[in-house]
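Hi R.,

Here's the input for the calcium ion complex you asked about:
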Amino acid sequence: MTTNTSPAEPGNRRILLVEDEQTIADVVRDYLMKAGFQVDMAGDGFTALKVAESRQPDLVILDRMLPGLDGVEVCRRLRQTMSVPVIMVTALGTEDDRILGLEMGADDYVTKPFSPRELVLRVKSVLRRSVKEFAPEPPVEAAGLWLDPASRTVAHDGAALALTVREFDLLAFLMRRPNQVFSREELIKAVWGWDFGDLSTVTVHVRRLREKIEANPTKPELLKTVWGVGYRFDALADAKESARGGE
Ligand code: CA
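And here is the predicted structure with calcium ion in place:
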């Protein structure tokens, strides 16, 4: 444990809490503030977008059911301009609903009723991963992809890709372990830090990543499915390319 203040310390981190049910909003705000976060609030979708724009939060907790503009639409619009991590809060709890939130770019979700303590843990977990490390790992390059943990940027054949926090983490994890197969259970532990969780979270993130990195997402060359086992990052394309020799 260190006593140094760092960008990862809650006191430097601003959370936007979007929730129209005042009782829930108050309880969650209190928990977040007790944990040391600065909290901005919004009670509807349009206000959420305005506050996000003006306050530039480090993370957004976004209720799925909101008056005006619902959470899924807010998430979609946020994604057009910001890479801020989003935790979606859903009351419906159906798998389709959670997947829709993830498809729109949410990084995590919690289902109502939730424990505020667990939500704070989720917030910390997502933020830990979105904060630049002080001694970041070196960039990794494979199969035309270049990933730099220090700046949290990814480029494909020189063109920058816009990845969400978890998409980045998942790709980084797999690129660092080329050609190794990981089950969805292993990935949800390693990348999300969850001991349990909905494995479709992994499936959706893989699909989203493929849409961003694959020439043909329906016939992935980089992020391969190993049927009945899981996924692997295939660096063979790179091996062929880099077989050109030289130094
Ligand atoms: Ca609501």
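One thing worth noting: The chain is about 40% helix and 20% strand.

Cheers,
M.
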